[in-house]
Design goal:
Radius of gyration: 32 Å
Order of helices and strands: HHH
Number of strands: 0
Largest sheet: none
Number of helices: 3
Structural class: mainly alpha
Shape: rod-shaped
Distance between the termini: 97 Å
């Protein structure tokens, strides 16, 4: 008479999808809060790197001047 034998039907599927989405959003939120945020990548230009290498003694004065001249476009 009241169709009590049909059980939960589609509502059961709706509940399962709801809980899957709920826990997935909780996990996503936790991961996004815990993971470090990546800011813009700061890149040094080639001349700055050459100056740093020259100052630390990795390259000689002649190598630095050659690199500087190459970057400036003069030979």
């Amino acid at each position: 008479m009241w169709h009590a034998h049909d059980g939960m039907g589609w509502w059961m599927l709706f509940g399962a999808v709801f809980w899957i989405l709920f826990w997935a959003s909780i996990v996503w939120l936790l991961v996004s809060v815990i993971r470090p945020q990546r800011g813009p990548v700061e890149r040094d230009d080639a001349l700055t790197i050459a100056r740093r290498r020259y100052a630390s003694g990795e390259i000689t004065r002649e190598e630095f001047e050659r690199i500087r001249d190459d970057l400036a476009g003069t030979a």
